[in-house]
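Give me structure tokens for this 126-residue protein.
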Amino acid sequence: MQRTIEDDDLLDAVVVRGHQLRARLKERFENVEIVGDVRDRGLFVGVEFVDDRDSKAPYSGGATFAAWLKREALQHGLLIYPGAGAADGVEGNHVLFAPPFISSACEIDEMAECFEDIVRACMGER
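Here you go.
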């Protein structure tokens, strides 16, 4: 396993694709008020949802919104990991992307585009 990671330069790919995914998500959500932050560590990329972007007040409603996003994402073939309660144990919603090391640039772009569509659709129904 370690040899494959080294031989195929997968760690370098993780850095490049992680920056790409973060950049694409930041671009797509720069004007979406409920997205408070997009941050990453390699290919682990988190999207935080807020009630107020300026104060960074956590998105209310407990785990409901992140779970809803996960259900919608699965219906569109996108796997994300929902999270909630990071602000105080109850409030706050976020999701985590953790795509495979071998994700292509095209696949990363597709993930960001699909997720934007999902978030916007869920926002319209809240």
